[in-house]
Amino acid sequence: MQENATNFNSKESSIKSFINNYEKNPAILVQLELLCSNEKNSNRHGQINKRPPQLTYNRDIDVSLADWVYCSIDLGYLVTRELIKTKAKEMISKLNPDFKASDSWLQCFLDRNNISLRKLTEKSKLQMEQYQTISRKFRAHIRDKILKHNIQPEYIINFDETPFFWDYLPRKVATPKLSKSATGWKRGYHKSRSTLCLAITAAGDFLRPALILKRQKPYVLQSINDIDLLLLHSENGWVNQKIMIEWLQRVLLPYVGRNNCMFLYDSFEAHISDEVLNFLRGYPNIQLGVIVGGTTSTDQPLDLKINKSFKDICRRQSIHHTNSMLKALQEINAFSQAQKPSERLLESNFSFQYLFIF
Questions:
Q1: Separation of first and last alpha carbons in the chain
Q2: Which residues make Cβ contacts (< 8 Å) with residue 9, sequence separation at least 6?
Q3: What local confidence, expressed as pLDDT, does residue 311 receive?
Q4: What is the pLDDT of residue 93?
Q5: Euclidean distance between CA atoms 300 and 297, whole angstroms
Q6: Residues 6+ apart with CB under 8 A from 305
Q7: What is the mean pLDDT of residues 143-161?
Q8: Mind listing the domains of the chain with CATH numbers?
Q9: Residue 5: partners with Cβ closer than 8 Å, 6 or more residues away
Q10: Are 207 and 201 in contact (CB under 8 A)?
Q11: pLDDT band for position 118 (50/70/90)?
Q12: I need a labelling partner for 35 at 20 to 30 A (CA). Which of 66, 127, 188, 275 fits?
């Protein structure tokens, strides 16, 4: 009996009970093997729990927390383990100050309420069909408004923001196959992020571009402003209600004047804030079209063509500028101590000036 218990990795009393009932229920052996395999796997991972731990708070709070998780999932929120822990502390700490939302508590909570943590997946086929239906209705609605107000193509305006980095590093660089890493010279600006605001009309004309810098005070451009760039600033370098209203006052309104206009942008929170919407209500000649979240890949013209092309141009220019600066530093022998020519370069007939074709 003890040898069987060792083989099955289970208690001797459990083996004895199953053997006594085997004649009445022959299928009990399958259940025994399943039980033992589960215990063995649980022991291997150190996660075996003979009994679930008792709750140190009211069961109703546990049910309310589970309802909050399910409702948040239905609304489309990204519910993470950290978010569940934070909400649990908020609900439970009032009655149990010693409560700690540990990993073991979280796993038991998920098991009790049939919830699992899984990797984020792409949109399902049903969601895609719903978004396509919304997109068709949105386009029909915008088309009707344009025809009703007789809006000309030069006053159908699409607005969008795109992140702008002072250094656009290449996605891939050439390197020997056996090398362990792909290295290159960085100037340190590849993490300096700002926001570029672009607006384009249906006739293909660009409005005045705006660049939002991460600054506390306004920045004065030192070079000649050939493109009439509008420089704005915010604490995080992103668009907020104040920035949006300032852009409307300084860019959109002077361009539109009293002409009927269709203004299209996405449902970013700064775009649809009460301050911005109240400001636009004062201009009845501007018809507002808010692109529904999840449909910008099909209904946002700037996302379809302009933004990617713009970033590709910036990346090419950034690589050209970096390599040209590196060439200039090597010509004045600034890297004589840090970087020496390779043996292959010394044995060849080429020199530095022929290596750079930029």
A1: 81
A2: 36, 39, 40, 43
A3: 78
A4: 83
A5: 6
A6: none
A7: 93
A8: 2-45 (no CATH), 59-112 (1.10.10), 134-172+188-295 (3.30.420)
A9: 11, 12, 14, 15
A10: yes
A11: confident
A12: 66
